[in-house]
Amino acid sequence: QVQLVESGGGLVQPGGSLRLSCAASGITFNIYATGWYRQAPGKQRELVARVTSGFRTNYADSVKGRFTISRDNAKNTVYLQMKSLNAEDTAVYYCHAEQGGSTFREYWGQGTQVTVSS
Which of 33, 38, 49, 95 is the most exposed, fewest CB within 10 Å of its CB? Predict the structure, then answer.
């Protein structure tokens, strides 16, 4: 059974920081691209950051320079370090894992709430 379990969400003041973690099980983690998406109320889910199996990263323009994605294959975990948070970052953040190529597979975590408010 595949599981992606997020942690680290919560309430933070504007300008603050949070680190999200996503622990994966049931997959060969090191061959998957992993990423973080978010969905704010009334908006579509959007890509925040992604790191490939080869450790290439890409970010949404809105978070470049503030968020950093990383992965630890030994721990089957992907992280999202978030700094200089603002109200527009408030959303449910979802972990995502994707295996491309001839056999496409993708999995989602259950989501973790991040609220930026004073």
Answer: 33
Torsion angles phi and psi, residue 45, rounded to 5? -65, 140
Residue 54's contacts (CB-CB under 8 Å, 6 or more residues apart) are none
Is 94 within 8 Å of 36 (Cβ atoms)? yes
Cβ-Cβ contacts under 8 Å for 26 (sequence gap 6 or more): 1, 2, 3
The three-class DSSP label of residue 88 is helix
* pLDDT one digit per residue (tens) for the chain, 118 residues: 999 999 999 999 999 999 999 999 999 999 999 999 999 999 999 999 999 999 999 999 999 999 999 999 999 999 999 999 999 999 999 999 999 878 889 999 999 999 999 9
* Residues 6 or more apart whose Cβ sits within 8 Å of residue 62: 88
How far apart (Å, rounded) are the C-alpha atoms in residues 106 and 2? 10
